[in-house]
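Data deposition worksheet. Section B asks for the primary sequence of the deposited chain exactly as it was used as input, without tags or linkers unless they were present during the calculation. Section C holds the resulting structure in token form. Section D is free text for depositor observations; keep each observation to a single sentence. Incomplete worksheets are returned to the depositor.
Section A, Depositor: J.P.
Section B:
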Amino acid sequence: MLRIISGRSLEMKLKIKLHPNSSREKIEKISGSGYEVWLKEKPVDNKANVQMIKLLKKHFGKEVRIKSGFTSRKKVVEVED
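Section C:
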């Protein structure tokens, strides 16, 4: 889903299903705006969220921020241009 916000660039909202404490780091697209992300980091002290943002930023080459689901494995993130 793309949106134009007044004074801001285009944004894309993605639904993320996170698998922390995994043996691998991987991003897999499962639907139009749905992704599954596997991380080696444990979900302790926000480490998994920080690693997920770094991995998605590298994957898309754009700024990424969490919009909802900070303490959940199911998250909504925004990717900006």
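Section D:
The mean pLDDT is 90.
The chain has one domain: 6-80.
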